[in-house]
Amino acid sequence: MKSLILNRLADNTSGYHLPQHPVDCPCCGLRQSVPALQPGEEAHCTRCNQHLVRIERNAINGPLAYATGSLMMLVVVALTQYIQIDLAGLHVTLTIPGMMRVLIAQDFGFLAEVMFMLTFGTPVLFTLLCLYVYGGLKAEQALPGMLYATRVMVRLRGWMMVDVFFISTLVAYIKIISYAQVIFGPAFYLTFILAILLIRTAQSVPEHWIYYEIQRLAGRNPTTLVPTAHTISCSSCLYEQPANRKICTVCGSLLYARRPLSLRVSMACLLAAIMLYIPANVLPMMITSNPLGTQANTIFSGIEYMWQSGDKVIAMIIFSASMAIPILKILAMLILIYSAGFRPLLSLPSLTRLYRFTESVGRWSMIDIFVVIILMAAFRTPLAKVAPGAASVYFCLVVLLTMLSALYFDPRLMWDKMRTSSSHPSSPTAGQS
Ligand SMILES: [Zn+2]
Ligand SMILES: [Zn+2]
Fold first, then answer.
1. 411 alpha carbon – ligand 1 mean position (Å)
2. Could you give the angle at the alpha carbon of 211 between the alpha carbons of 229 and 195, nearest 5°?
3. CA of 250 to the centre of ligand 2 (A)
4. Distance 143 CA to ligand 2 centre (A)
5. How many Cβ atoms sit within 10 Å of the Cβ of residue 158?
6. Which residues surround ligand 1, an ion (CB under 5 A)?
7. Which secondary-structure segment (H or E) carries 102?
C-alpha cells in the first residue's frame, strides 16, 4: 500500500470527513490507500496523478450555493434577451429558447434537441439533482433514490456546454459585426457567470465522498472491507466490493474490474465518427443567401473564405474546433485503442496525457455548430439569410460519437497491456508523474 499525495488546503472546520481506506485508481488501476481526508483536502494517484477525491472546504453548503446560483442564472438566461441585431433598420432580438424555435421551424429539430440538451436541459437536470442530493446530506436524511440521483448527476457533468456556447457567441459576434450592429443583452453577460458557476458546481461534487455520506446516513460504512483476491474496487465509486457481486452495494453501478467490451464499443463509436466525418466535410455546413445570390460553404471552404476576407482569428478558431480537434481526437483514440488492445505505441505517461487531453478537448468542437445556429437565428430575413447545411447534423454526430468513444475507453487496459507485454516487471511503475 502506498500513501497518496495529499494536498492540505484548509483546516478542518466541519464534521465531514473520509476515513483512510483502499481504492484502485480508475485511470491506472493501482491499488493504494487514501489517507483520512478532511474538508479542503484532496488525494491523487501516486502513479498517474489521477484526481481521486477532493472534499470541498464547505463540504455541503458550497455545492448547495453553487447549484442554487446556477439554477437561478439558468432561469434568468432563458427568460431574458441574449443579443439584439440591427441590420438595415430591422431589429432581431434573440433569446436562447428563441434560437431553438428557429431551428425547429427550419426543420433542424435534431440540432435544436442537441442545443437544448447541452446548453439548458443537462445543466438544469444536473443542478436539480445536485440540490436534491446535497439537500438530503444537509438534512442528514437518506432521501429516496439518492444513489440513482448521484449516478445520473455524475454522468451529466461532462455534457454541459454553456462555456462552449459562450465562446461560440463571441466567434459569431466577430462575424456578425461586419454586416450588422450587435447589442448584447443581459442573458449574454449572465451566460458567462453561469458557465463559471456550472464549472465550479461540477468540480465541487466528489461522488466518491457523496457515496460515503449517503451510506453513512443509512448506518453503513463502505470503507471497512479489506482488499483481498476476492474483492474488487467498483469502477464508479471506487469502494472495495466482494468480487462475486454483479451490482455495487455502495453506489448501485454494475460491478466490473475493467469496463466490459470497452475497446469494441469505443472502436465502434470511433469508426462511425470517421465515416460521418466524410459527409461532414463534403456537404455544405452553412448556406448563406442575399438578394445577390446563394452561397453554400463546406467547413473547409468556410474557413478559406474567412481567411481570405481578413477574419484570420475566426478562421483559426473554426479551423482548430472543426478540423484540428476532431482529426487529432480521432488519431489519438486510434493510438489509445491500439495501445490498449495490441501494443503500447507510446510510453504510459504519454498515453495517459493523451487520454486526458482527448477527453477534455472534444466538446470544444461544438463551437462551429453553435456559431451556425447563432448566425441562422441572427440572419433570417430575405435581405440576409443563413441556414445550416446537412453537414451540421453529421458534424454534430461526429462530435458526440468521439466523446462517447473516449467515454467508453477504459484507460486501465493500457496499463494492463504494458504489464503483460513488457518483459521488465518494473515497467508499470515507470509512469510516475
Ligand atoms: Zn493512477
Ligand atoms: Zn460502486
1. 10
2. 125
3. 5
4. 18
5. 16
6. 25, 27-28, 45, 47-48, 50
7. helix 96-105
Tell me the CA–centroid distance for residue 148 and ligand 2, in Å. 11
Q: Give the number of whichever ligand sits closest to the CA of residue 23.
A: 1
Domain definitions of the chain by residue range: 1-58, 60-221, 262-421
Cell 463502505 found at? 222
Is residue 45 a contact partner of residue 25, using CB atoms and an 8 Å limit? yes
Provide the pLDDT confidence category of residue 380 given band limits of 50, 70 and 90: confident
How many angstroms is it from 393 CA to the middle of ligand 1? 37
Cell numbers for 20: 483512510
Three-state SS across 271-336? HHHHHHHHHHHHCCCEEEEECCEEEEECHHHHHHHHHHCCCHHHHHHHHHHHHHHHHHHHHHHHHH
The domain made up of 262-421 has a fold known as Butyryl-CoA Dehydrogenase, subunit A; domain 3 (1.20.140)
Which ligand has the minimum distance to the alpha carbon of residue 429?
Answer: 1
Q: In a 10 Å sphere around its CB, with 0-12 CB exposed, 13-18 middle and 19+ buried, how is residue 202 labelled?
A: buried
Tell how far the Cα of 414 is from the centroid of ligand 2, in angstroms.
Answer: 22
Cα of 251 vs centre of ligand 2, distance in Å, is 4
* Contacts by 99-102, CB closer than 8 A, 24 or more apart: 99/373, 99/374, 99/376, 99/377, 102/376, 102/377, 102/380
Which helix (H) or strand (E) segment holds residue 182: the answer is strand 181-184
Block residue for cell numbers 484526481: 51
Residue 429 has pLDDT above 80, yes or no: no
- Find the farthest-apart pair of alpha carbons in the chain and give their distance in angstroms, rounded: 75
Q: How far apart are CA 27 and CA 99, in angstroms?
A: 39
Residues 12-45 pLDDT 10s: 345 788 999 999 999 999 999 999 999 999 999 9
Of 261, 258, 264, 226, which is closest to residue 419 (Cα–Cα)?
A: 258
CA of 429 to the centre of ligand 1 (A): 10
Whether residue 398 is predicted with pLDDT greater than 80 in this model: the reply is yes
